[in-house]
Write a structure and sequence with these properties.
2 helices, seven-stranded mixed β-sheet, mainly beta, 4% helix, 275 residues, seven-stranded antiparallel β-sheet
Length: 275
C-alpha cells in the first residue's frame, strides 16, 4: 500500500499559487496503477482516497503509524466503487463481488480488508474513499440499480446529468462519508450549475470515462477568486470546503464525487458562484 500525504491550505494562501503549485497540492495525476494500491491522505477532513488495481495478488488495506491504529478501519469507514472488470472485496473473510459500476460501504471496525480481481488479465479498477467514523454501520453492497438516481439540469444550460447516490442517507447508513457517480447526457458539458460551495463539507472528484484527447477544466477557489485545473482521464482533485467544485469538459465524461464533513443529507449548500 502506497500512501501520500497532502496538507490543508488557507484560501488566502491559495490565491497566490501559480498553476504548477495549484496542481501539485490539489491534483492527483495518477490514481490507478496495475498491481498497486495507491492512496492519498488529505488533511482536509482527514480523508483518504485512491485506487486499487489488483492483478496477480490481493491488495490489502493496512493500518499502522500513519493512522495510529493496528487496522485501517479501526476508526474509519470506507466506500468503494468499481470502474473496471469484475472484482471482489474481502471484509473479515466475507466476499463481496463487485461488477463494473457496483459499490460497497464498509463500516468502522472491520479488521481485514483486501481487494482482488476475478481475472488478473482483466483487472478490477477500484476507487476508494475513507474518512474518520464515530459509529459502526453495516457493510452494504450497492449496485447501480440500487443506488438512488435522479435526473438534473437542462439542455439549455448544457448540464443534463444523472446523479447516482451510492453511500448516501437515502441508500445506506454512514457516519459522514457520502459518495456517488454523476453521468452526463450526450451534448452536456457542465457537471453542475450553478457552481457552489459546501461550507462544512470537503469533496474529491475523480473524472473518468474520457477519451485520450478530452480534458476537463475543473474550477477551484473561493467564489470571487476562482482558478482552473486542467485534468485528464482518471485523475482526481481535492476541493476544500471553501472552494467551489465545478467543471466543464471538451468531450463526454463522468465522475465519482466523494465528500466528508458535516451535513451528510446535503439538502443545503453554501454560497453560490456569482452569476
Amino acid at each position: 500500500m502506497k500512501l501520500e500525504s497532502r496538507y490543508a491550505h488557507h484560501p488566502d494562501d491559495v490565491k497566490g499559487y501559480d498553476t504548477e503549485t495549484l496542481r501539485r497540492h490539489f491534483l492527483v495525476e495518477r490514481v490507478f496503477a496495475g498491481g498497486e494500491l495507491k492512496l492519498v491522505y488529505s488533511h482536509v477532513d482527514r480523508v483518504v482516497f485512491g485506487g486499487a488495481v489488483p492483478t496477480s495478488q490481493s491488495l490489502v488495506l493496512e493500518g499502522g503509524k500513519e493512522f495510529g491504529t493496528p487496522n485501517f478501519l479501526d476508526r474509519r469507514e470506507l466506500g468503494v466503487i468499481n470502474l473496471g472488470a469484475a472484482g471482489r472485496v474481502l471484509v473479515d473473510g466475507e466476499t463481496h463481488a463487485l461488477s463494473n459500476g457496483d459499490g460497497l460501504y464498509v463500516g468502522m471496525g472491520a479488521k481485514a480488508v483486501s481487494l482482488e480481481s476475478e481475472d488478473p488479465a482483466r483487472p478490477a479498477k477500484l476507487y476508494l474513499m475513507s474518512c474518520p467514523a464515530h459509529a459502526t454501520h453495516p457493510t452494504t453492497h450497492i449496485t447501480r440499480a440500487s443506488a438512488k438516481s435522479q435526473k438534473l439540469g437542462a439542455a439549455e444550460t448544457c448540464n443534463v446529468r444523472t446523479i447516482h447516490q451510492y453511500v448516501h442517507p437515502a441508500v445506506c447508513k454512514s457516519c459522514q462519508l457520502v459518495m456517488g457517480v454523476t453521468v452526463l447526457d450526450p451534448g452536456s458539458v457542465w457537471n453542475t450549475y450553478p457552481p457552489h460551495t459546501h461550507e462544512r463539507r470537503m469533496e474529491v472528484y475523480l473524472y473518468f470515462g474520457m477519451s485520450e484527447a478530452t480534458r476537463i477544466f475543473h474550477f477551484h477557489g473561493q467564489p470571487a477568486q476562482t482558478r482552473h485545473i486542467v485534468m485528464a482521464n482518471e485523475q482526481a482533485v481535492i476541493s476544500p470546503s471553501w472552494s467551489i467544485h465545478s467543471g466543464v469538459g471538451s468531450g463526454p465524461y463522468s465522475f465519482i464525487w466523494g465528500m466528508a464533513g458535516e451535513k451528510p443529507d446535503l439538502r443545503r449548500h453554501g454560497r453560490p458562484w456569482p452569476r
